[in-house]
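Deliverable D4.2, example record:
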Amino acid sequence: MTERNLNTGLCQREKNYIRRYVITTYLVFWGAIMLVGVLFMLCGQNKSVMNWGTIVASWVPTTILMCFFDKLFPEEKRSDWIKNAFKPRLKIGMLLFVTVCLVAAVFGTYVITVKNNNELSFHDLKGITIHSLIPIIFFAITQGSTGEEAGWRGYLQQYFEKKYHGKVIKSALVIGVIWSFWHTPLWFITGLPPVHMLIYISTFIIGNLCLSVIIAVCYVYCRNLIVPMWIHFLSNVLSTIIEPYVGDVESVLVARCWLAVFYTMVAIIFTFWYSVRRFRITEN
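Output generated by the structure prediction step:
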């Protein structure tokens, strides 16, 4: 067998493992969500069942990654991979900048929503207390932000960057699509009517695509898995804190539209920053 044929065989094998990883992650997560839904109903719609079940389901990407690890990384140990994933020094300035951008996006969304709805008031935010924040922060930490990112960014993002010859934005958009539709079962348990459902799904996908670009740009700048985990956590926790204070379902959907607009603006800013930084590196 020639070297070229060997490389082709290895690439095809890698593609097959990628497909298996994505499909298995989808199927296991969807099955887990259905199981959680059944248990939720059997337990008298106990919210604790839903919350803890969602935590377990959120860890599917990382769990499947560890199960497939020997196939995906045949020349590396799990312990070494995990250690290297958190080894690079964090870029505090970059983390502060992305934090300010996301906080501004969510706060801007809230301000516009309140201004356009006479039934809402900024005084409503007095309802936010330390007691109410503790469970929100706990579940935001233990769910998607820590449970998903080893799979999405730690593995898939870097695979697609290699596949697309370093095209970070293209890779981020591919991950954004995979990431968005992985959440499909969660869309349909909202119980929204068709028109509202369409708005919800559209804003969800747009938001995830934009967030995927933001995460990818930051992750390229600092290959520490804390970076995507932090951004994912921040997005989830800010939205969860504000959502109860933006009114009824229609008002929430309007807020989601504005948030998608702000996230798009932030994604454009980070794309521009990445392009400028890459140009400077190329020039040097």
